[in-house]
Amino acid sequence: MIYNINDKLPIGKLLMFAIQLVLSVFVATVLIANICGVAVSGALVGAGISTIVYLILTKFKSPMFVSSSGAFVAPVLAAIAAGGYTAIAIGGVVTCLVYTIFGLIFTKIPVEKIYKVFPHALIGAVTVVIGVNLMPFILSYVQINGITNMWGVSVAFITMLSIAIISHCAKGVWKILPFLLGTLIGYVYAIILTITNIYPVVDFSVFNNLTLFNVPDFAFLHWTGIDLATAIPVIIIYIAYTISAMMECLSDHAALGGIIGVDLYKEPGLGRLFIGEGVANIFGTSIGGLGICSYGEGVACVGFSKVASTRVTAAAAGILILLGFLAPVQAFITSIPSCVFAGAAIILYGFIACSGIKMLQKTDLNVQKNLVIVSTVLSLGISGLVVGGETISLSATGLALVVGIILNLILKDKNENGKEA
Question: Torsions phi, psi of 260, nearest 5?
Answer without folding.
Answer: -90, -5
